[in-house]
Amino acid sequence: MIEAHNVHKHYGDKAALDGVSFRITQGEVVGFLGLNGAGKTTMLKILCGLLLPTGGSVVVDGVDAVSDPLALRRRIGFLPDRPPLYGDMTVRQMLTYAGRLNGVTSARIDGRVTDVLALADLAHVADDLVETLSHGYRQRVGIAQAIVHEPKLVVLDEPISGLDPAQIVAMRGLIRGLKAQHTVLLSSHILGEISQTADRILVLHGGKIVAQGVEKDLAGGGKKRVEITARGSLAAVQKGDLLRAAGVADAEAEDIEGGLVRLRARFDDDAAREQLVKTMVEQGFGVRAVVDLESDLEALFLKLTGGQSTSSTQPGGVA
Amino acid sequence: MTEALLIARRELLGYLSSMMGWVILAVVLLADGLLFNGFAMGGEKKSFEVLQAFFYFSSGTTMVASIFISMRLFAEERQQGTMVLLETAPIGEHTVVIGKFLGAWSFLLLLLALSGYLPALVLVNGHVTVGHIVAGYTGLAFLGAACIAFGALSSALAKNQILAAVMSATITVSLLLAWMLAKKIDGTLGGVIGFLDLFDQHYRSFSRGTIKLASVAYYAALAYGSLLLCTAVLSARRWRA
After folding, report:
1. What is the ipTM of this complex?
2. Is B1 part of the contact surface with chain A (CB cutoff 8 Å)?
3. 8 A C-beta contact, residue A279 and residue A257
C-alpha cells in the first residue's frame, strides 16, 4: 500500500528526514510516534503530496508521489493537526465542498455526505455552522472531510490532540472504524494514543526510523511486565530464590509500607508467572494482587530516542 | 474547470458571509456616491463630462477595493489552516489560482454593478450613450482584474493579509507612476515604460467611452502574468515547508 524508500528532506543544510524507509500494507492502522521535531509531520506531508522529498521515493497504491502527485492526492485523505474547515460553512456544506473538490461527482455527493455524517456521528449537527462546534466535533468533521471521497489511505496528524477523555474514547472508536475501508496512518507524540489505536508503530527520531513493530515487541520482546503485591517481608526469605527463578527476568523486589512486599518482573510465559506465585505462597507470603503493568513503551521510547527532544535541531514548523 | 468554479463560488460566498466583504461594499459605494456628488456633479458640466469624471474617480476606488478584496486570497487560508484543503485536493495549482481569481473578480464585478445607479442617473437625466457606460465599466472591470491578480500574487507571497495589501499596493502604485519615469527616459525604453503605465496610458480612453483593444490586451496580459507567477509561487511551496 505504502512504500517509502530512503526518503530525505532537507531544509537548507538541516535534515528533517534522513533516510526514512518503511512499508505499510492495505488495511493496517499504523502509528507514527515521535517527539516534537522528530519529522513526523514532514513525513506525513510528503505522503500527502504537500511537500516534495529532497531524495528517495514514496509510492502509495502503486503511484509515485513525485512523478504523479495528482493521482497520489486522489488516493489520500488528510487531517492535519488543525482541521482545515471554514467556520462560515455548515457541516454539510463543508463536506460537500471537500468531496466535490476531491472529485466526487454531483450525482454521488449527497449520498457520500450522508454516509460520512452517519459514520462520524455528525448527522445531528449537519446543519450547524462549523464555527459553532466544539473542538471534538471539529475533529470529527476533519476526519469526515478526509474520507468523504473514499481515499485508500487516510492520514491523521495528531487527531486526538486537545480532546477531553470522553472525546478521546469516541475518536479512537472512529479511527478504528476506518480500518474496514481504509489504510490509516496517524501520528502522535502521545504514547497511550498510539498504542491503543494502532496495529503497528513506527518510532521516528531525529528524522530516522529508530524502531518499528507491534507494541508488544517494542515494549519488551513479548515478555509481559507484572507486579505482584504480597503480605510478608523479604527479610524472612532468600530473596535470590525469588528473583532468579526460571522464566523470570528483570526482577526486582522491595518491602513497602503496610507490611507488604512488591515484586516486579518480566515472565517468559504465564506458567513462569504462576510458578513464582506458587513459590511465594509456599514461602509464606500472602499474595494480594498480581497485576499486568501498563506497557512500558514509554520507557522503550525514551531509551530509543535518548530522551531528548529534537525540536531545537529542526527548523520551525517541520515537526 | 468544475473545481475552479467550485473554488470561485466558495470564495464569493466567503466574501458575502464575512464582515470584511460587506465593509468593502459599503465603504466603496459610499465613496463612489460622495465623489459623484462632490466632484462629478460639482460645477457646470455637460453630462458626458460628469460620466467621465465618475469613471475617473471610480478607477481609484476600484483599485483600492481590489487590493482589499485580494489580500485575503491565500494569506487568510494559510492563517486559518484551510489552505491544506486545496493543496491536498487532486487539482493543479493553476486551478486553485483561477478559482480564487474568479471568486475575487466576481465580487468586484458585483460591487461595480451596485454602483451602476450613478451612471444610470446620468443616462436618464442627461445626454450620454449606453456605449460610454459600457466602455467605462469595461475599463473598470479590466483594471480591477489586473489589480486583483497583483493582489493574488502578493497574497501567495506574503505571510499575512496586511503584508499582502502593502505589496499589492506597491505594485499598483509603481505602475500608476510609470509615466513619470517614462518622461525621464528617452527612446524605446522610455516608450516601453510609458506603455506599462496602468492608468494614464490605458484607462483614460475607457473613461472617455472608447474601448482600445491594445489596452484590453494590456490589462489581460498583466493579469495573466501575475496569475502565472502566483501559480509558480504555490508550486514552489511544495519544496519548502
Report:
1. 0.87
2. no
3. no
